[in-house]
Write the structure tokens for this entry.
Amino acid sequence: IHIAEIDGQQAAMAIKDAVYDGNVVIADITRLRTNDSTVEHIVDELKQVAREVDGDIVQKGDDQIIVTPTGVEIGREKL
């Protein structure tokens, strides 16, 4: 499991590489402005990666995104 901070496009590339390598990534997106189209673009890119590797992606609140690799599904129900 990797922890990341997304503050721009370069950080998104590192996350994509980590997911392709089979790692779960928990990314903090608080440094991005929520009204900025960059957030939407980066989230779309990460969704595409999750689809390509048959993984999963979920946004937790306004501050985190979790992306998983092949075969790892994120439960949507609270315990």
Notes: Helices lie at 9-20, 37-52. DSSP finds two helices and four strands in the chain. Strands lie at 2-5, 25-28, 56-60, 64-68. Residues 57 and 67 are 4 Å apart (CA to CA).
